[in-house]
Amino acid sequence: MDMITERYELSCDRIKEIAAVQETAGDFREYFKKTADFILQVADICQNPGKTGELESLRAQNRALYEDILGDQYETSYANPSYACSRLGRDFGQLLSFLYTEIRAMIPYAYEARLEDMAIRMELFVEVYNAFAYAYSEAALHALPEKAAIPEKEEIRETLYWFVSDYSETASQWRVRTQVDADCDFAAKIIMESDLNDIRYLYQYGEFVSPEIEQMAQYLNSLPEERIQMIADTYTEGYRIGFVKGNKDLSKKETVDIRYMLGFERIVRAAIQNFAKMGLRPAIYRASNSVFHKKGVNKIGYFGADANKQFLYDHKDDIALFLDKKLVNRRLEVLKLAYEEVKDKAAKYAGPAVIEVFGETPFAPVSKKEACSLSAEQQKLSAEYTGASADIVNRYIIGEERSFTIIAFPVPDIGEHFAEIFDETVKLNTLDYTTYERIQAAIIDTLNKTKYVEVKGMNGNRTDLRVALYPISDPEKEAIFENCVADVNIPVGEVFTSPVLEGTNGKLHVSRVFLNELEYHNLEIDFQDGMIADYTCTNFDSEEENKAYVKENVLYNHDTLPMGEFAIGTNTTAYMTAKKYNIANLFPILIAEKTGPHFAVGDTCYSRSEDVRVYNEDGREIVAKDNSVSALRKTDPSKAYFACHTDITIPYDELGSIIAYDQAGNVYTIIEKGRFVLEGTEELNAPFD
After folding, report:
1. What is the pLDDT of residues 332-361, one digit of tens each?
2. What is the pTM of this model?
3. Which of 109, 288, 423, 519 lies 20 to 30 Å from 580 when distance is taken between CA atoms?
4. How many CB atoms lie within 10 A of CB 256?
């Protein structure tokens, strides 16, 4: 028996004892009983990790693992910080709710038989329990009052802190390896070796499998092979073209990072076969909910259904319990060591190929005072870590040498017209790029003459922005905007640039928008010389909560961000598809950004690849790739990047005008009252009719 197995089995034995008898103060007995029972339930999975059994029994097993955070049951779950604090007091409620949440991260480890990841969490639980049991026994022995029958809060926080610190190295090593090493093939084997017509394969992952996930897999199974291949070809060809257009050498790469939602395996299998013809093997890793890898509510990797989005939101900032300068330095140190161990494989990593989904029930979170939140100092530390960690990654996975692609599809949650919307989306993803290239070239030719653009809203939209443009010296050879025709960003339909920050001023307003799965009402961002000067929304009753919501989830805890991109979306077909099925609020940013002008806050589209020469199809070089912030990479790299880029789109029906002005004051109207009026673009209005 090896040491890990021994530790695991000893922990199981001890937790069985705890489940039988809880020698703690009364308020905590239920917590330790329920948590011990849950750990043993997960441990049982190691014996039969979803590979055998009838479909109904697999469904029951899967649901049982997520039962206490589903629906109304979350209200009385210790995973809910509000309930935990009401039962255990605020001091211990947050800490023990975090502990239970981290133990829930054991579910996928059981399916992958990762005993060490299970053992360290089980040992942590036992250590915390022992502290409570010792305090209880000491109080009983000396006839001390009830308040002495529990340990000090700081003792428990320290125990949890050192768990996070001590195991950061192990967690980072595993995470980095799975991102760049195709031999970490747990998911790839499921995809390539399973009978995908037998949807029991979905239960091998250890993710939550909703009825809609099953329905997605069954729907794709109903499509003919040639249609699946066409979808996969669009996806993988976009990836290949990204390297061609970016003048990057794909032949030097060996690994592609595939990200998807369960149910899409048939497309992913065909894509893996396509990538193999390019000399690429898949690195497919799980989107983790552990404190070691969590990044807000964003999912990076493959994932199942969300058992409860509010649960994810409640725990997005659990690191606030521990975050200090020492922990930041520790995490950066182990991240560098982890990449150093796999530096040869990291150098051959080609970049992500992402399948996004849309159509899930819109989520507007409830802000809970019991949930952890970062202090002002921790927000700065978090932003510092994000930037420094991105710098480390870029040393081993050089931005100038990698690419990506993103494509999106609806999921059955979108409603009764799912099949129709799926077909419409496939059409959107395969629109004739030559038509858009020609029309968008007319827009770029006009904007090449101009100095700045004014964007104004209508129908209640309060947008009033002046965007300064990069001055070019040779319009015959240079371009300010890139002509985007469905390579890395599918579908077609935008021209975009990095605006000049100085002279970019005004207000951006959108009445309703979804960004990274979160809903915003009346999102407003004010810019001064291209930098965010103020922001708010109307999601919550208090202005303080509204500002905090935007800062945490749009600014990613930075005090300010630059306008990294200005673009004009031209995919009116996508816009009218949204109107037809009333799904505009469900479109992902990937498609939404093509349905009107959009502005990205954060890094530019050319982040860490500014010196790679990029050309439009007409041979003109795109020269507006930098701004005064990203240019700091040459003198002060720590201030040049923010490791975020969030697109915010104004829909055509809220768009009053886009008007450009040249040095002499000549006026060029691109869009007026939501319609394209520039000569050569009128064809884009056809879908409106």
Report:
1. 999 999 999 999 999 999 999 999 999 998
2. 0.91
3. 519
4. 29
